[in-house]
């Protein structure tokens, strides 16, 4: 009987030992790998054994293959499946799976910070919070914190704009370094653009920023926000303090945080090596009685009055006490507290009031930060503080132990100071119930308007009081004076200011507008107009059709002098949800060109024609829709009988993508039916020749200008338009598209005084010091010129607004064109140049372009170029001025598209640009029926370009010029244009290509007919 021994090898093999031989076999394939015979106890290896070729080939799958077979699970899961099921696997080591790396990328765990500060200001953490949805009592919307990593001591500053960060940091740095006698080594912030100027302004400070979208790397500052807000809201809730005082409470909370233990250590103690005095602390929001005797008018007045404790003064050793009757804040060290009474709870003022909220686009006044003073005490060592006065950004800094003894009897009495905090009026929000409809398909009519008592009817609209009648009486005290302790009071705010803010500011939401009677009435007027035009029909919602939403848009219509004319509420459909080809097709709608307006006005003035101005009320509602569009019922005006119905639109409501085109087609068809013809060279110009009489109509959306050589025909045209549309005759041209028209003895002066004043007010430069030129001659701007500007949106907004100002101000065309070249990435130097332009406009607000009443019908133009004027790409700037008789009707300052090899080529390209404008004007005048006295003349101060326009010379230097630029040579050859040489001193287009010195600039500005509006 044979003996068999089974042995399992570690390589998944089975060895069977018998008496006569030994057999080694693969466990998986059952294939013999090795057979050895035994003779006399010795195993003899047979070298002639035929080996299977599969014995040397591995058919085991790799770990990565099993990882893919199992659907890309985790490494641990893959190994668990392979090992537990004894799958054939060649190796257990993974190589990186790139597909998993891309698909399973996630945020890695944050390891604890290894850096440990060993001294104050070695590392300072900072972050900006805001904007707050509620403007604070002192007008703030942001705050910035600085946290010392060594002591965890916190400083807080309040801001009105984020752009103030770099300025505040410079103040903070100077003061803390002087106070603590050490310097800031490292500043850690997020990657916000508001911190970028700090890197350039303080290169000695290491500025470390967190990775994009990784606020955890700035955890100290982020966590401090939560700490401050949580404690502040808890204190405000406890005392029912209104949210408009959040800046006062935040300041006091930081004062307390610095005196509370953090991980058993008190920040105040670590930083100043002394313990804080907790005996001075009182409950925020409790009733207090400050000594007011210094403010009494006679000796028989009470020496105190009940106030609310708002917190601790940051610049004096005193408490901040709010008088609810006058909204004054008294700062005094002589205060008696009653911590069981909370006046805000008794007055039932909740934390949130609807009037406290403000839009992100609300105008914010600029921040003014003065130097922050140290507080001194007579009876002890002077105490350094980092806190400004109440009207400045507040920084809560530590007080010495002697300063903490605020009520100690050995401290001398200090007079109190009073400041006033604005009060926000509370306007209740009312709800309205629309009248019931009579059927499922209800056409919007007057009867379907809301009938609440708060909703005025159309009959009441005619009796609307003027905006001036709705203003409250003037304030009793209008002066801002100093207190006896030489602290400056904040600006006085009264009910007039609060009311002015609500009446002069356009509401951003329906709830804001609904709280004011004037805006509720404006909405009623709009709904009445929608009903008269049969704008929609109420129908059940469609099954598979998109339903658009809508919103109310509010606009204050003003007179030419800036005073309020009326309040306009407009219901706008949210057309951005429309789909092309589904609920709209074509959208293009032309508007009249500014050059066309100036040409028609020049003809009218030189011919002594009457110029009338019209306005079409609810213009878009006249347009007919050809597509099927559904819209939800407007907010506040939902029909209670059919609350789930939607509006099937019949008219082109504002906001729809096709609305401008639908209105223009409606108006265009009406004018054509009256005998007008649309111009081939400006579709928004309509021309009528009736029995030899000329009549012109200029259309810019719903603003219309009518002029002609027969006053009777002008009146008939207005009457015909009134039969088709709700046209309002505004009389003689006076205010069109933001342009004031002033008739003088010399002609018609077009200015944009109000528009520019509004722009200057928006950037707080209305009272800036004027300069005499828009751009300095020694300034060369480039794209890499200086540090980046921290508010590029403001820069783009200002330059975009100035583009529109060039309609009546050719003297700023070059400067605006130059500044527009840096819209993508403006720097501080670019913003400085923009502010200089604004200062120039501040001194020339009443300037505009004069259209003379005596002029001829001849065209002459001036063309110029500044060769390689741009230092960034060495491209040139073209400029031209085109006159119709004495009147400047067209001008341009434009950067050329390519680099040119010579000044001749630059001037020649500018000639071609001017020639195309002249050709268009010639065709336009011919269509208007204006006979040309002579052929146009084009003046150029480059003799080479002049010769090149008349003769095909300089082939070697001009063979690379594009063919279309030789258009000017063709016009000269056809005897349709004269190109003549003029000396540089008489080149009027010089102002369009470069900055000029004052005498030269003022001379050319006069030649451009730019004059002041005060002329007789």
TrEMBL record:
GO biological process, alphabetically ordered: DNA integration
Annotated GO MF terms: nucleic acid binding
Organism of derivation: Rhynchospora pubera
PANTHER family named among the record's database cross-references: GAG-POL-RELATED RETROTRANSPOSON (PTHR11439), RLK (RECEPTOR-LIKE PROTEIN KINASE) 8, PUTATIVE-RELATED (PTHR11439:SF455)
Compositional bias per record (Polar residues), positions renumbered to this chain: 372-397, 430-443
UniProt feature, compositional bias: Low complexity: 398-410, 444-460
Protein name: Gag/pol
Integrase catalytic domain residues: 116-284
A Pfam family that the UniProt record links to this protein: SH3_retrovirus
Region spans: Disordered: 372-489
């Amino acid at each position: 009987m044979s003996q068999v021994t089974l042995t399992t090898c570690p390589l998944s093999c089975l060895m069977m030992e018998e008496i006569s031989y030994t057999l080694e076999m693969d466990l998986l394939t059952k294939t013999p790998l090795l057979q050895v015979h035994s003779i006399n106890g010795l195993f003899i290896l047979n070298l002639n054994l035929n080996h299977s070729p599969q014995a040397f080939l591995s058919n085991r799958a790799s770990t990565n293959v099993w990882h893919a077979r199992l659907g890309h699970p985790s490494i641990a899961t893959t190994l668990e499946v392979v090992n537990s099921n004894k799958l054939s696997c060649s190796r257990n080591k993974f190589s990186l799976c790139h597909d998993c790396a891309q698909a399973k990328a996630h945020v890695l765990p944050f390891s604890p910070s290894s850096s440990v500060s060993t001294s104050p200001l070695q590392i300072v953490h900072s972050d900006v919070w805001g904007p707050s949805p509620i403007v604070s009592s002192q007008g703030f919307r942001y705050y910035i914190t600085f946290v010392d990593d060594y002591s965890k001591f916190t400083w807080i500053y309040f801001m009105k704009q984020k752009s103030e960060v770099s300025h505040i940091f410079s103040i903070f740095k100077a003061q803390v370094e002087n106070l603590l006698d050490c310097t800031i080594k490292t500043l850690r912030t997020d990657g916000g653009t508001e911190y970028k100027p700090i890197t350039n302004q303080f290169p000695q400070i290491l500025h470390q920023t967190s990775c994009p979208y990784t606020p955890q790397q700035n955890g100290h500052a982020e966590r401090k926000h939560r700490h401050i807000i949580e404690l502040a809201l808890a204190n405000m809730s406890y005392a029912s303090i209104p949210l408009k005082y959040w800046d006062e409470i935040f300041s006091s909370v930081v004062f307390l945080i610095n005196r509370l233990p953090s991980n058993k250590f008190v920040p105040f103690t670590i930083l100043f090596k002394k313990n804080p005095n907790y005996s001075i602390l009182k409950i925020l929001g409790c009733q207090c009685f400050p000594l007011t005797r210094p403010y009494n008018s006679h000796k028989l007045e009470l020496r105190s009055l009940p106030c609310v404790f708002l917190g601790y003064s940051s610049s004096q050793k005193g408490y901040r006490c709010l008088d609810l009757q006058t909204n004054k804040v008294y700062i005094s060290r002589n205060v008696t507290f009653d911590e069981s009474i909370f006046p805000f709870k008794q007055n039932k003022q909740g934390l949130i009031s609807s009037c406290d909220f403000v839009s992100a686009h609300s105008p914010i006044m600029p921040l003014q930060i003065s130097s922050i003073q140290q507080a001194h005490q007579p009876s002890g060592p002077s105490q350094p503080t980092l806190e400004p006065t109440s009207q400045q950004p507040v920084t809560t800094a530590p007080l010495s132990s002697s300063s903490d003894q605020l009520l100690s009897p050995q401290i001398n009495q200090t007079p109190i100071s009073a400041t006033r905090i604005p009060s926000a009026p509370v306007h209740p929000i009312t709800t309205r119930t629309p009248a019931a409809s009579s059927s499922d398909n209800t056409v919007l009519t007057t009867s379907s308007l809301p009938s609440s008592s708060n909703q005025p009817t159309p009959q009441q609209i005619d009796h609307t009081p003027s905006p001036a009648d709705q203003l409250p009486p003037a304030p009793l005290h209008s002066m801002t004076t100093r207190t006896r302790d030489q602290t400056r009071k904040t600006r006085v705010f009264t009910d007039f200011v609060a009311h002015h803010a609500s009446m002069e500011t356009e509401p951003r939401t329906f709830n804001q507008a609904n709280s004011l009677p004037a805006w509720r009435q404006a909405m009623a007027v709009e709904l009445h107009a929608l009903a008269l035009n049969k704008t929609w029909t109420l129908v059940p919602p469609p099954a598979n059709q998109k339903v658009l939403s809508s919103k109310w848009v509010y606009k204050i219509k003003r007179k030419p002098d800036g005073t309020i004319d009326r309040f306009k509420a407009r219901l706008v459909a949210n057309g951005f949800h429309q789909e092309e080809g589904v609920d709209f097709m074509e959208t293009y709608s032309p508007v009249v060109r500014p050059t066309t307006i100036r040409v028609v006005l020049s003809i009218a003035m030189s011919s002594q024609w009457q110029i009338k101005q019209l306005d079409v009320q609810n213009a878009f509602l006249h347009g007919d829709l050809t597509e099927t569009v559904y819209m939800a019922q407007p907010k506040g005006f939902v029909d209670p009988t059919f609350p789930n119905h939607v509006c099937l639109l019949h008219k082109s409501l504002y906001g729809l993508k096709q609305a401008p085109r639908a209105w223009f087609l409606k108006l265009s068809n009406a004018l054509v039916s009256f005998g007008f013809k649309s111009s081939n060279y400006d579709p928004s110009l309509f021309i009528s020749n009736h029995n030899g009489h000329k009549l012109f109509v200029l259309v810019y959306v719903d603003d219309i200008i009518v002029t002609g050589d027969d006053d009777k025909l002008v009146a008939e045209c207005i009457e015909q338009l009134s039969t088709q549309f709700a046209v309002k005759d505004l009389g003689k041209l006076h205010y069109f598209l933001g342009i004031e028209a002033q008739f003088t003895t010399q002609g018609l002066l077009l200015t944009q005084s109000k528009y520019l004043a509004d722009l200057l007010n928006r950037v707080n430069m209305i009272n800036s010091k004027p300069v005499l030129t828009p751009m300095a001659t020694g300034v060369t701007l480039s794209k890499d010129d200086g540090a980046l500007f921290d508010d590029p949106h403001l820069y783009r907004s200002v330059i975009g607004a100035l583009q529109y100002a060039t309609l009546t101000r050719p003297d700023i065309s070059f400067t605006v064109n130059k500044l527009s070249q840096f819209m993508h990435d403006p720097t501080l130097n670019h913003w400085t140049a923009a502010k200089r332009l604004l200062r120039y406009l501040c001194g020339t607000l009443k300037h505009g372009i004069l259209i003379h009443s005596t002029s001829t019908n001849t065209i002459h133009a001036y063309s110029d170029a500044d060769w390689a004027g741009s230092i960034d790409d060495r491209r040139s700037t073209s400029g031209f001025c085109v006159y119709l008789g004495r009147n400047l009707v067209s001008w341009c300052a434009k950067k050329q598209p390519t680099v040119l090899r010579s000044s001749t080529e630059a001037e020649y390209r500018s000639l071609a640009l001017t020639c195309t404008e002249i050709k268009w004007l010639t065709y336009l005048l011919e269509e208007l029926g204006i006979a040309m006295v002579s052929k146009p003349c084009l003046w150029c101060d480059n003799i080479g370009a002049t010769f090149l326009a008349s003769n095909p010379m300089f082939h070697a230097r001009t063979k690379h010029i594009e063919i279309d630029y030789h258009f000017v040579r063709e016009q000269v050859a056809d005897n349709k244009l004269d190109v003549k040489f003029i000396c540089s001193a008489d080149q009027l287009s010089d102002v369009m290509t470069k900055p000029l010195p004052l005498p030269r600039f003022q001379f050319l500005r006069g030649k451009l007919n730019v004059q002041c509006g005060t002329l007789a």
